[in-house]
Write a structure and sequence with these properties.
single chain, mainly alpha, 77% helix, rod-shaped
């Protein structure tokens, strides 16, 4: 027991000695940092310090005071004083670099961000560790000014993000944006005072696109919903998010993502509906006749919003591809109701009749009964005739583009005995 007590006493003495040495070293570091601070401040006031000298001395002082603070050797009652020196050594570089930015002059943008982090952390440290005293000799006004300095510094993180992004440092740029977005959480001392110049959703929008530039897809996923709240850039945000899935090589996730947001608001996303229909048509073609992804999707869109032209057209196209000409015709006619001046709807409606007539005509030679064969041939001519009004409507839509309608009209006119009109089409072709 006596031995144990003796060992404990020795260890206590060692700990006290180590702490004393640590405190002594921290005190010396604080004194050195303060000496640099005073010297460079005097030269700045006398306007005899070069910019290079200011930057060098401030960086040196910051490093020394930071080492002292990290050591744990600065007594609690001296922390405010240490942070005060730290703040002052960040202000000079910060203000110089801001002036360069205003003047559109080159400066060290990477250090701007490093110095900014040091500055806001030092301001927070000084505010937290300085006892506020009132009265004429008190520091109340001084601390209020420090709080104001910290409150307004949130905007500088947005600048830092832009500087970092412009230099391709996307990870640092995103870090800067995230600090701006969470500024009052990081610095609760200014929770009721800090007001950034742009709204949080706009910062999230910038952060989201920065994450995309840096291919930080996990960050994109986390920022997407907030970025989407920035209405002015919502369409671009959706497009970039969709594209990111393709960049990741995940076509299934891309299709599901586009499908989900187009179903939520079809009218606002017709361009994306068209893109996804094209994708599903390709998928159906690759998978074979049993695949029906396109029809499932367009039916979902039309169930929610029946007046979406591109969805109606996609349905008609798929039915036509399946050689369901009567159903395709009805779908194309709905397209003409939605856009009566659109050539495609009228032309495709006529083509449904035209292809149906061709298919029926191909069966004539296989019919052995002459009476039935004659009836089928007459039926074929009749259907060719039914196609004519729709091709003529297509012609009205694009009268100066005969290559889009003249061939089919010539065939229909010829089959139905309208030789003069057929000859007119020949001339146009």
């Amino acid at each position: 027991m006596a031995l144990l007590l003796s060992v404990g006493t020795i260890m206590g003495q060692v700990d006290k000695a180590a702490l004393k040495a640590l405190q002594k070293e921290a005190k010396a570091q604080m004194a050195e940092a303060q000496k640099i601070n005073e010297a460079i401040t005097a030269k700045i006031n006398e306007k005899t310090a070069s910019e290079e000298e200011i930057m060098t001395e401030c960086k040196k002082s910051q490093a020394i005071i930071r080492k002292a603070l990290k050591s744990g050797g600065v007594p609690e009652n001296k922390l405010g004083e240490a942070y005060k020196t730290y703040v002052e050594m960040t202000f000079f570089p910060h203000n110089m670099m801001l002036q360069h930015a205003v003047n559109k002059e080159p400066f060290d943008t990477a250090f701007f961000y490093t110095n900014l982090k040091n500055m806001t952390d030092a301001l927070q440290g000084e505010i937290k560790n300085t006892k506020v005293t009132k009265g004429e000799a008190g520091n109340e006004v001084y601390i209020k000014n420090r709080i104001a300095n910290l409150a307004q510094s949130g905007d500088y993180y947005i600048y830092a993000a832009q500087f970092n992004s412009d230099c391709g440092r996307y990870d640092k740029a995103l870090e800067s944006f995230e600090t701006a977005m969470n500024y009052t959480q990081k610095y609760p001392e200014v929770a009721d005072k800090a007001q950034l110049r742009i709204p949080a959703e706009q910062i999230a929008y910038y952060a989201f696109h920065t994450a995309h530039e840096g291919k930080m897809y996990d960050k994109m996923d986390g920022l997407y919903e907030k970025a989407l709240q920035f209405a002015e850039g919502a369409a671009g945000t959706k497009q970039v998010m969709a594209e990111s899935f393709r960049e990741r090589g995940d076509t299934v996730a891309w299709a599901n993502f586009v499908r989900d947001f187009t179903l939520k608001d079809p009218k606002a996303n017709e361009e994306f509906i068209q893109i996804l229909i094209s994708h599903f048509l390709k998928q159906d073609k690759q998978a074979g006749p049993s695949s029906n992804l396109t029809m499932q999707y367009v039916d979902e869109i039309l169930a929610k919003e029946p007046d979406i032209y591109i969805a109606q057209y996609g349905k008609a196209y798929k039915l036509f591809e399946q050689e369901k000409y009567d159903e395709a015709f009805e779908a194309y006619m709905k397209c003409t109701e939605l856009q009566s001046d659109n050539y495609e709807g009228w032309y495709q409606a006529g083509l449904c009749k035209y292809r149906k007539a061709l298919a029926l005509n191909a069966t004539v030679s296989t019919i052995k009964n002459q009476t039935e064969a004659k009836k089928t041939l007459e039926k074929t001519r009749s259907i060719f005739g039914e196609a004519i009004p729709f091709f003529e409507k297509a012609r009205e839509c694009v009268p100066d583009e005969p290559m889009k309608w003249a061939f089919e009209l010539r065939q229909c006119y010829s089959v139905t005995g309208q030789a003069a009109k057929a000859a007119e089409m020949d001339k146009l072709l």
